[in-house]
Structure formats: structure tokens, C-alpha cells
Design goal:
Signal peptidase I, alpha+beta, elongated, 2 helices
């Protein structure tokens, strides 16, 4: 009888930990589309850490899961933070006068519909897809800059 009670307690604790992880700590997410290539491929499974940004602030270079009104949940890279200046010039995007690292070394065909120079407002983040010519991101007003409350979490694991 006592063995059964211990087994039930252990099972209940495991269930609680699993419930906590799934609903509060992590989220599994399947990448949809090619906007983050070559870093992430269509149909890649990633793990999103939902707690990280309750402790730390997002920073440039972080890959994040984001809730948007236009496109649902998406995954992008933070490239600029509050006060940074974003400029599109000669097929490149510059942040504070420094060209962004374009992983695909692409000429950027579409500047989006925001007005440049664009100064990132307080308490928001400017996000881009790594495959910039296939990405709907902060260059477009329908996505825009992302508030911290709309960041689901930091991508922990991919591939």
C-alpha cells in the first residue's frame, strides 16, 4: 500500500512538472516558411524558452518567437533595440551606420514600407528574418517593431 502511495506521489509530481514546462516554461514550435534560412529551415522543430525574458532583456542577435496580429506566431532575429537608427541604402540595411550581417549575403530587394531613417521607439525591438528577401518583418508596418509582451520567448534549440 505504501509503495502505491509513493508511486502515485511521484507520478503526480512528474505530471505537475510536465504541465509547468509545457504551459509556462517552454514551447515547441514548427518553423513555417523560409524567412529564417539558412539558420532555420521550413518545418524545423525549435524549443522556445518562455521564462528567459522574464529575467533578462532581449538583445541584438537573439532569435525569438513572437506573436503578431498579421502573421500569427513567427520566429525572427532581433537586429535593433530602442534608440537604434535603421537605414536602408544601396540594397543593404544599416543599424547605427553599420551594415547588418546578411547571412545569405543578399542584395536586399525590398526596403519595406517604413520611412527611413527609422529610429526604433522606446521599449520595442526591430526584427528581421535571416533570409531577408523572403521575410515579413519590422520593415513592414503590418508587423512593425515588437513589444516585449509580444515576445513568446528565446529560441533555445534548433535543428
Amino acid at each position: 500500500m505504501q509503495k502505491n502511495v509513493k508511486w502515485i506521489k511521484k507520478t503526480f509530481i512528474i505530471f505537475l512538472l510536465y504541465f509547468f514546462c509545457i504551459f509556462f516554461a517552454i514551447q515547441l514550435f514548427v518553423i513555417k516558411g523560409n524567412s529564417m534560412q539558412p539558420t532555420l529551415q521550413n518545418q524545423d522543430l525549435v524549443i522556445i524558452d518562455k521564462i528567459h525574458y522574464h529575467i533578462f532583456n532581449p538583445k541584438v542577435g537573439d532569435i525569438v518567437g513572437v506573436k503578431t496580429e498579421y502573421n500569427g506566431e513567427i520566429v525572427k532575429r532581433i537586429v535593433a533595440v530602442s534608440g537604434d537608427t535603421v537605414i536602408y541604402k544601396d540594397g543593404k540595411i544599416f543599424i547605427n551606420d553599420k551594415a547588418i550581417d546578411n547571412l545569405n549575403n543578399q542584395y536586399i530587394r525590398d526596403r519595406g514600407d517604413i520611412k527611413y531613417p527609422f529610429i526604433v521607439p522606446e521599449n520595442v525591438y526591430f526584427i528581421l528574418g535571416d533570409n531577408i528577401n523572403e521575410s515579413m518583418d519590422s520593415r513592414y508596418q503590418r508587423i512593425g517593431c515588437i513589444k516585449k509582451k509580444d515576445i513568446i520567448g528565446k529560441i533555445l534549440y534548433y535543428k
